[in-house]
């Protein structure tokens, strides 16, 4: 095994989709912008004389290899339906988070349990098959959240393993191009190791996963993105200068981690990150469909100091 690092649609009713957001202006004003592909001469940390050649291509997982947020949303909705979660308790139907709502919500609150706790606190603790009346004690509320999260996690795994989920456009082709050209390949994700392994084995296939030169997950470093530790560690494991690594990310948090590590970064945004500020990226794409290894090599070779 070549891996050298430790391996470790149901719409929400309109009245519900905005509940609890009146005190969060960001959620009221967040909007998605269409982006044209663009390339920028930039980075104050890179001098014009710096020699850069593409020796290693590093992929993030969630949002880059897999557009996962809608799958998480589906798993939450399935959990709410399974336990007949009514929130608020007066609702006539089980809770469902719409795509528009979730795109905004997931940028406000991170983590599955915090998401549900925040939502229930803002909109009323629900009734369910687990609790006929809304739980009032901290212990009962924790039990509700834990049960929903456990079921949701198993459902998410089922979705990933169903064979119906594919890698984002262009990802596998670009990986194969890089491998054929003798470039080193790595995946660096802030997600838990078990989650990333599940995604990679099912989306890029076991052979490609085992052929990675480096794989690092959130468990492998002390600090998560935007801290640069995961990318610095990857460069060390790969035996490649940070100058010669190119990172593919989907969010400004990942972009910050890459640039703080001294690496160049291109963005393939998703619907939930399309409004973010990617000015430090050397290029921004809606996906990798029309992006070749040669394109990326050219980008890296033509970086100059921003005027």
Automatic annotation (TrEMBL):
PANTHER family to which the protein is assigned, alphabetical: OS08G0485900 PROTEIN, XYLULOSE-1,5-BISPHOSPHATE (XUBP) PHOSPHATASE
The highest taxon in the source lineage is Eukaryota
Pfam families given in the database record:
Hydrolase
Protein name from the UniProt record: Haloacid dehalogenase-like hydrolase domain-containing protein At4g39970
Its lineage opens with:
Eukaryota, Viridiplantae, Streptophyta, Embryophyta, Tracheophyta
Could you tell me which species this protein originates from?
Brassica napus
